[in-house]
Design brief:
By secondary structure, the chain is of the alpha+beta class. The chain is 38% helix and 15% strand. The N and C termini lie far apart (65 Å). This is N-acetylmuramoyl-L-alanine amidase.
């Protein structure tokens, strides 16, 4: 039949293009989108006792870093820094490494 000769997709695409200026149709699979760098430059320090708190706060102040001190029911404080520059992050990590304190980089 004459209908078999018509390319319905092309006709529909032409109508959509005429009305909107955009093409329609089946989208082709594209390259998968890579997630952005997930590094946040945040450090979560393991439990700090009150005897080390002043020193830790001084270290954060010396490299102009901010953060939160989370007091947990075990009696220890778990500092979490705010996102910061690579330079500040490295300086604080160097300090934590010298102290032998446990931390997680996020």
């Amino acid at each position: 039949s004459d209908m078999a000769k018509w390319n319905v997709d092309e006709i529909a695409n032409s109508i959509v293009y005429a009305l909107t200026g955009q093409t329609a149709g089946v989208s082709q699979p594209s390259e998968p989108i890579k997630p952005p760098n997930q590094k946040r430059n945040v450090i979560e320090v393991g439990g700090i006792g009150k005897e080390n708190l002043d020193e830790l706060v001084s270290a954060l102040n010396s490299v102009k870093m901010t953060g939160n001190l989370n007091l947990k029911s075990d009696g220890y404080i778990y500092p979490v820094t705010d996102p910061t520059s690579d330079f500040q992050l490295k300086a604080f990590i160097d300090y934590l490494d010298r102290k032998g304190w446990v931390y997680t980089e996020k």
